[in-house]
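Appendix B. Chain record.
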Amino acid sequence: MSRHGPPPDEPPPSTPLERTFSQTLASGYHRLSRPWHTVLATGLMGGLEVGTGVLALLYTLHVTGSHLLAGLAFSIGFLALLLGQSELFTENFLVPVTAVATRLASLGALLRLWGFTLVMNLLGGWVVTWLIIRAFPGLHRVAARSGNHFAELGVSLSSFCLAVLAGSAITLMTWMQLGADSEFGRIIAAIAVGFLISGTQLFHAVLDSLLMFAALHTRLATFGYLDWAIQLGWAALGNLVGGIGMVTGLRLVQVRPLRHRLSQAPPR
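Structure tokens predicted for this chain:
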């Protein structure tokens, strides 16, 4: 029978893996238990704060023409998410999913979190990219090129694979940050994955939506909002497959004995 409630009292975890998993469960339960207005505000801040990374990316790409350097600059956005304690839709593929899998929370609560966070990420991203394009006319051409690139990926096996890799990378970042012993370790994980996703132009539902919004704001885009919506759905599907299927699912198998004990223990 399903049990929804706070994680039960357990003996202190004996290994780093068990400590990380126990922390994941506690964080997942509390994340899914937040009131709706907190989820909306956190998602909105996530969209606004990752926009700082988009500004750094576009400016660096404009000055240097290097996607690798632009990817490194973009990691400012992931640092803002980490230190500002906001979140992206794709950061919820491990922590809350683990809480649902261990029956500490309901699937409905997870779907609410995903939906609210994604909508508010996109709203915040639309606003901040409008501000960027209005404030920096010199970035119009590079913004249009960047957004057009992701629109031109289309719905294909190649773009889906890019989305799967992006979803697995950001979910791995979440696991790495949970397992890190210091703030410095969490910062390194944010920089590394921010660079990987942006520098190699992986297909990330939120980040690439912001780049497409920037292109649309310039009025130099070769696509429209319907094209963006199709790409968003395709990227989100691939991100889900990568994040849940390639990272979260395997982690749940890896910690199966501890997971079983927690699901059988009576709630506090």
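Further analysis of this model is presented in Appendix C.
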